């Protein structure tokens, strides 16, 4: 009878523990998710744990679809000619006369298409975008500055000017309007003087370009005026444009069409020279345009960085030195690229990225397709599955009785102590161990299989201890 009672307690305790245990295949084995390289509209396959959780708890618990990661050849943008990876049905890339150009998604930094992206060419006043990225954070817009005569020396012949005068006092915001709208080299010289001087500003801009991953740019003259050795590329200009859109001040200045510029006791109106923004001189205004910066010198030809928003999508394009169509061709070719980009954005695979190398690495191995445990998503799925399992087990354990529930608690404590070196420490950690990948579809590990057996033994031991304690209590009473 003694043996029968002990076996009954052990069996009850074991059954209660087994009810609590999650299914090993759903929660204890590492989850390996392989992301296929398909189209921009494809989605990552669901996780096994997430599927189990959603089946048990309803559609409201379903895990969100993971974003697609594309394979990007990092050397592709170094090649000459047009680079694009169209999917079936994608629109054809427009045939343009520009020596180089880039179309990219401003949010993700993915380059949708490009031509001679890293060809080094004179940037003209589009270099002012880099100047603004470097100098804007150093002074408040409302700060006032009185211009010294020395700050206006050295301005190149034929430079575009906004009309800054020595001895006059200007707000910093007025000077920036002069930079962005009138492309005023005089305003650039004053702001550069306020930030350490011409040579210092050149070094600061060079450092800023490198920090953004723009390796083609060499700064000699911060205003973009032609200077020996001064070059940039369509890729770098797109990087500067994308970075500028992340700064609300930069975006406000570059998208301003008209402003008043002070001249002592009065002011006069200035208009943005970006024709796509204002819709002047025979160029139709582009819907949703955010501006950025245009430029021209006899050596650089026409250059342009433009960005436009349509719905929840923002694109940035850069165009350098069109070879045909006259002085307005740069705007029309940018228009064609924007139109193509908005139409093709879900129908092409990226050919590169505007993100700097260290950012790509932090975001996930250069945006390549990956095959690693998705710790966060798997942990959530495992936690949900564990919660469902525990809820069911609680209902069943209540029917077993108070004595068996106590045995379950003791068995869990003993089992955790014995399995501490071999098993995950909880439902949220049972899904994956960083750095220990397993092949997709592999069987559960030895620790995962051994965990139920260890707890069964612990349950039996706890149940026998409970029975012995009760037996002693009965003997003392009798």
Short descriptors:
alpha+beta, two-stranded antiparallel ribbon
Mean pLDDT: 75
- The coarse overall form would be globular
Number of strands: 14
What helical percentage do the residues reach?
40-55%
Helix/strand class: alpha+beta
- Gyration radius, to the nearest Å? 33 Å
Helical segment count: 15
Query: Distance N terminus to C terminus?
Result: 18 Å
| Residues in β-strands, percent | 15-25%
What is the H-and-E element order? HHEHEEEHEEHHHHHEEHEEEHEEHEHHH
Major sheet summary line: 8 strands, antiparallel
Low-confidence stretches: 17-69, 365-451
List the helices and strands and how they pair.
Layout: H1 2-20, H2 24-27, E1 32-34, H3 48-57, E2 82-86, E3 98-105, E4 110-115, H4 128-135, E5 144-146, E6 169-171, H5 172-180, H6 185-194, H7 198-211, H8 234-245, H9 248-254, E7 258-263, E8 266-271, H10 275-278, E9 289-297, E10 301-310, E11 313-322, H11 329-344, E12 348-349, E13 352-353, H12 357-364, E14 371-373, H13 375-400, H14 402-419, H15 446-477
Antiparallel strand pairs: 1-14, 2-4, 2-12, 3-4, 3-11, 4-13, 5-6, 7-8, 9-10, 10-11
């Amino acid at each position: 009878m003694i043996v029968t009672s002990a076996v009954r307690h052990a069996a009850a305790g074991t059954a209660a523990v087994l009810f609590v245990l999650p299914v090993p295949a759903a929660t204890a084995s590492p989850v390996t998710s392989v992301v296929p390289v398909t189209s921009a509209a494809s989605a990552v396959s669901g996780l096994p744990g997430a599927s189990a959780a959603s089946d048990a708890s309803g559609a409201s618990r379903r895990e969100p679809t993971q974003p697609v990661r594309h394979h990007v050849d990092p050397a592709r943008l170094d090649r000459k000619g047009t680079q694009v990876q169209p999917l079936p049905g994608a629109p054809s890339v427009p045939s343009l006369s520009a020596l180089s150009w880039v179309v990219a998604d401003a949010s993700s930094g993915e380059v949708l298409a490009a031509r001679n992206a890293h060809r080094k060419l004179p940037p003209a006043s589009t270099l002012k975008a880099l100047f603004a990225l470097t100098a804007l954070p150093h002074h408040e817009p409302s700060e006032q500055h009185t211009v010294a005569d020395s700050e206006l020396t050295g301005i190149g012949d034929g430079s575009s000017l906004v009309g800054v005068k020595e001895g006059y006092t200007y707000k910093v915001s007025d000077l920036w309007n002069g930079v962005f709208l009138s492309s005023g080299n005089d305003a650039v010289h004053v702001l550069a003087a306020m930030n350490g001087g011409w040579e210092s500003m050149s070094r600061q801009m060079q450092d800023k370009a490198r920090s953004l991953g723009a390796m083609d740019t060499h700064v000699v003259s911060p205003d973009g005026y032609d200077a020996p050795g001064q070059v940039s590329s369509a890729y770098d200009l797109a990087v500067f444009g994308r970075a500028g859109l992340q700064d609300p001040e930069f975006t406000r200045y570059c998208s301003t069409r008209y402003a008043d510029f002070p001249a002592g006791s009065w002011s006069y109106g200035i208009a943005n020279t970006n024709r796509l923004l204002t819709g002047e001189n025979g160029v139709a205004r582009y819907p949703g345009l955010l501006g950025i910066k245009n430029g021209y010198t006899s050596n650089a030809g026409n250059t342009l960085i433009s960005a436009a928003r349509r719905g929840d999508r923002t694109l940035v394009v850069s165009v350098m030195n069109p070879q045909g169509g006259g002085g307005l061709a740069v705007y029309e070719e940018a228009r064609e690229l924007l139109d193509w980009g908005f139409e093709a954005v879900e129908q092409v695979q990226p050919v590169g990225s505007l993100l700097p190398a260290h950012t790509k690495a932090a975001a996930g191995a250069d945006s390549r397709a990956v095959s690693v445990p998705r710790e966060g998503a798997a942990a959530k799925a495992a936690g949900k599955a564990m919660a469902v399992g525990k809820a069911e087990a609680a209902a069943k354990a209540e029917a077993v009785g108070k004595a068996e529930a106590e045995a379950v608690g003791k068995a869990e404590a003993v089992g955790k102590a014995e399995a501490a070196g071999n098993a995950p420490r909880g439902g949220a950690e049972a899904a994956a161990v960083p750095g220990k990948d397993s092949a997709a579809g592999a069987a559960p590990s030895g620790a995962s299989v051994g965990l139920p057996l260890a707890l069964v033994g612990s349950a039996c031991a706890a149940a026998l201890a409970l029975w012995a304690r009760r037996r002693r209590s009965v003997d003392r009473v009798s």
